[in-house]
Design brief:
The complex is a heterodimer of chains A (169) and B (651). Chain A has 169 residues and is of the alpha+beta class. Chain A folds into two domains: 61 residues; 84 residues, Glutaredoxin (3-Layer(aba) Sandwich). Chain A has seven helices and four strands; from the N terminus they run ααααβααβββα. In chain A, helix 1 crosses helix 2. Chain A is elongated, with a radius of gyration of 18 Å. The N terminus of chain A is likely disordered. By secondary structure, chain B is α/β, with parallel strands linked by helices. Chain B has 23 helices and 18 strands. In chain B, the strands form three sheets. A nine-stranded mixed beta sheet of chain B has the order 2-1-3-4-5-7-6-8-9, with helices on both faces. In chain B, helix 3 crosses helix 4. The chains are: A alpha+beta (169), B alpha/beta (651). At the A-B interface, helix 2, helix 4, helix 5, helix 6 and strand 4 of A face helix 2, strand 12, strand 14, strand 18 and helix 19 of B.
């Protein structure tokens, strides 16, 4: 995944339309399609850009406020572009008991950001997530697509370094 | 793929085509996180390189999460063997030694729990040993050597002795299992070795006084195919008896008779509340309407629960079959599976299941020539716990914020797009398929009078073997923790077991003999919930755990009603005040008052049950709260430091 720029690069209206149409088309005839369209958009862009929401509002003929009402209600949808690498620490019960808070604190120190923030160089985004269902491997975290289990604090630097390196190549 | 008809469907029952030699890898999210994909690739590469005639397959998880990645191997000469904690190097060894030479591998075998009690003069071909009393140091290797020497003395050269990783028996001294029979001995002492050899190995006679006669308390109905079926292959599911329940229903039963079958089974909703499934279906069937819906609630949000994920990833067709059955019984021809977006593999496998079922004519128009048509689609959740609540879930599928609305009207009368809708949980639907296949009467033999059947639990926390467990209702919680999961981690003392996640409560150690059922758990101030079971030891702070769950509910409150939105926040403030050592005696009373208000006045289940973890810890562990109040800030600092140190040790 390439680093998403801070603002959505498409400024001319026609191209936004081109962006949005395929997402809408697939779900056009289905009732209650908004959330599935938003999923489709976020899958492609990593977040839901404002320009696209505006276009979506016009295409679906629903107020922008209604779209934002939905986006902001659900944790899953993002309004700002994510960092290049996403570090998601599981804070389900099993992970919590086995040291997830300590892992988060250590990652916050190492990356000099708070949970929910992105590093200045936009390399890492740190977040805590609800149970990812890998309780047998607590404490666990998901970095980009890869799930790491039974993590020790001493493993964290290695995982970050490897992720950064893997991203460059 | 051609479409099935009743005849071709029935013919699947009798054909189980599998090559004589195969190995399978448990490829669920947990397994893959532990390296199952690398293991799978290594098995394939080694097999090709060595030119071995064997099939390498993928399955879901067999539930033994603690031992991921898991590989199962079957050869003509040996019984099915399960290996735990496999890596790619070991995978290569498995091909070379097990698949080619029929040699077992040390230290990774998870012994079968299907223990036989008779030998019938069958002589063992291999012996597994494991010292299950670890506190005096592991003597497995010593006993392995003794057995080998003893065998040599008897002149037996062709019966190898292997160290097992897990015997499925705990704190019972030296355990020995004979293969292929599965006859197992426990509390074996050195003088017994000679008897075992002269009786069992030489003559095929069981040594009665050492025999483990207790069968494994587990009963797998929901998890019947998890770990044995390839979740991405409908043919494999069909060969495991899949879609026979649907076939029988469509061919022989009316929708009313289907509902009656469920009534006989006594199945109650496995999402947590335990509402009788047949009644929910009848209430959805009764109203006149052109359009009705069935929904599978796969928005598993309880932190610490992974039952639904394992079933969706391990046996997606069983859930889909249950949904089609539900559709037929309530008179709905449209079904939705509402799945968490955080479970991408589950989404992928369910989508594949839907596509394959459509190709086979098990979804679509005129299914199996019955005249019944049904379509199913996935809708993704987006990380809102409240969407597990029926009316919020419906709002979410309609593309709106997941805010609950007051009931009645219940979804059975006015649900999705204002039409009658029946919502069932993943585990419920997987059970439904098994019930229709085997009959309601068959299902009703398991469990207790009020709570029939089996329940899957995800046992996690400070437990030796974090894993999925499926047991008949009515068995004591202690049995689940100690007999199935091996007790508390590193020999610590168990303090309490939490069930029901953020909506549940704790059960202290001295009440662990309570038989598990909807009624008994609610009497104890907890709930059955979806099946999370968290084990806590003496080092865990009950105040901290209550705070954790409450914080979860406060974060997840949709904010629609004041009791939940404001009450939850204030309650959390008070708990944090206690945890900082700044609270007063009167704060406990205040906590109880807010809890009561939330229980009585909240709009939906989330707010009504959010105080449960607080109330139940107060009920059994009030002294931990008062210790903070009396000990003040210095005590609070001490506890916090201890918790951080402990977490560091385990992390």
């Amino acid at each position: 995944m390439k680093t998403a720029p801070l603002t959505f690069p498409i400024d001319d209206v026609e191209r936004v339309e081109v962006e949005v149409e395929p997402h809408v088309e697939k779900w056009q005839d289905q009732e209650g399609n908004l959330i599935m369209i938003l999923h489709s958009i976020q899958n492609e862009h990593g977040y839901v850009p404002r320009e696209i929401s505006m276009e979506l509002s016009a295409l679906l003929e629903i107020p922008l406020a209604r779209i934002y009402e939905v986006i902001t209600f659900y944790h899953y949808f993002k309004l700002v572009p994510p960092g290049k690498h996403n570090v998601a620490v599981c804070n389900g019960t099993a992970c919590y008991l086995k040291g997830a808070p300590q892992l988060i604190a250590d990652l916050e120190r190492k990356l000099s950001i708070k949970e929910g923030e992105t590093t200045e160089d936009r390399e890492f985004h740190l977040e805590t997530v609800r149970c990812i269902g890998c309780c047998g491997m607590a404490p666990a975290m998901v970095v980009d697509e890869k799930t790491h289990g039974r993590i020790k604090i001493s493993d964290l630097q290695g995982i970050l370094d490897e992720t950064k390196k893997g991203g460059v190549k | 793929m051609s479409k099935l008809n009743p005849k071709t469907l029935a013919s699947f029952q009798s054909q189980m085509s599998r090559p004589p030699n195969w190995a399978s890898v448990g490829m669920d999210t947990g397994g893959i996180a532990a390296g199952a994909r690398e293991v799978f690739d290594a098995l394939v590469a080694e097999k090709e390189q060595k030119g071995v005639a064997a099939e390498i397959r993928q399955t879901g998880s067999n539930g033994l999460a603690y031992a991921d990645p898991i590989v199962q191997v079957k050869t003509e000469q040996l019984p099915l063997i399960t290996y735990g904690s496999v890596d790619s190097e070991l995978a290569a060894v498995i091909v070379e030694n097990h698949l080619v030479k029929n040699q077992l591998i040390e230290d990774h075998i998870i012994a079968t729990r299907e223990r036989s009690t008779t030998l019938d003069e069958q002589k063992p071909i291999a012996i597994l040993v494991k010292d299950t009393s670890e506190e005096q140091g592991d003597k497995t290797s010593f006993f392995q050597l003794s057995l080998q020497q003893e065998l040599e003395v008897h002149g037996i050269k062709d019966v190898p002795v292997h160290r097992a990783m897990d015997m499925g028996i705990y704190d019972q001294g030296l355990c020995i299992q004979l293969l292929p029979s599965g006859v197992t001995y426990s509390n074996v002492l050195t003088p017994d070795l000679r008897r075992i050899i002269s009786q069992s190995v030489e003559k095929g006679i069981v040594v009665e006084d050492l025999l483990v006669e207790d069968a494994d308390p587990q009963q797998k109905i929901v998890l019947r195919n998890c770990g044995s079926v390839d979740p991405e292959c409908i043919e494999d599911y069909l060969q495991h008896g899949g879609y026979q329940g649907l076939g029988r229903l469509l061919k022989d039963l009316t929708p009313e008779q289907g509902i009656d079958e469920l009534k006989t089974s006594g199945l109650r909703g496995r999402g947590g509340a335990g509402f009788p499934v047949w009644l929910k279906w009848k209430l959805t069937r009764d109203p006149e309407s052109d359009q009705k819906y069935v929904i599978c609630n796969a928005d598993e949000g309880d932190p610490g629960a992974f039952m639904d994920r394992s079933v969706l990833e391990g046996d997606p067709h069983s859930v889909l079959e249950g949904l089609i059955i539900a559709g037929y019984c309530v008179g709905a021809n449209k079904g939705y599976l509402y799945i968490r977006a955080e479970y991408p593999l589950a989404v992928k496998r369910i989508q594949k299941a839907i596509d394959e079922a459509r190709q086979k004519g098990l979804i679509g128009e005129n299914i199996l020539g019955s005249g019944f048509s049904f379509n199913a689609d996935i809708r993704l959740g987006a990380g809102a716990f409240v969407c597990g609540e029926e009316t919020a879930l419906i709002a979410s599928i309609e593309g709106k914020r997941g805010s609950p609305i007051p009931r009645p009207p219940f979804p059975s009368v006015k649900g999705l797009f204002e039409q009658p809708t029946s919502i069932n949980n993943v585990e419920t639907l997987a059970s439904v398929a098994a019930i229709l296949e085997n009959s309601g009467k068959w299902y009703a033999q398991f469990g207790t009078e009020e709570s029939r059947g089996t329940k899957v639990f995800a046992v996690t926390g400070k437990v030796r073997n974090a894993q999925l467990v499926e047991v008949p209702m009515g068995i004591p919680i202690r049995k689940i923790i100690y007999d199935v999961c091996g007790g508390v981690l590193s020999g610590n003392k168990l303090k309490a077991v939490q069930t029901g996640g953020p909506s549940g409560g704790v059960i202290p150690e001295d009440l662990l003999d309570t038989p598990i059922s909807y009624e008994s758990l609610s009497k104890l101030g907890s709930i059955m919930g979806s099946g999370g079971m968290l084990v806590m030891d003496q080092n865990d702070s009950m105040v901290d755990v209550a705070k954790f769950y409450l914080k979860f509910c406060v974060d997840e409150s949709c904010g629609k009603c004041a009791p939940c939105r404001v009450g939850g926040y204030q309650l959390l403030q008070l708990l944090e005040k206690i945890f900082r050592g700044k609270a007063l005696d009167t704060d406990i009373e205040q906590i109880k008052r807010i809890c009561e208000a939330m229980q009585k006045a909240s709009l939906c289940g989330l707010g009504q049950t959010a105080p449960n973890p607080v109330l139940s810890t107060l009920r059994y562990f009030e002294e931990e709260y008062t210790a903070f109040i009396e000990g003040g800030a210095s005590y609070a600092r001490k506890v916090k430091r201890q918790l951080a140190d402990l977490a560091k040790q385990s992390a």
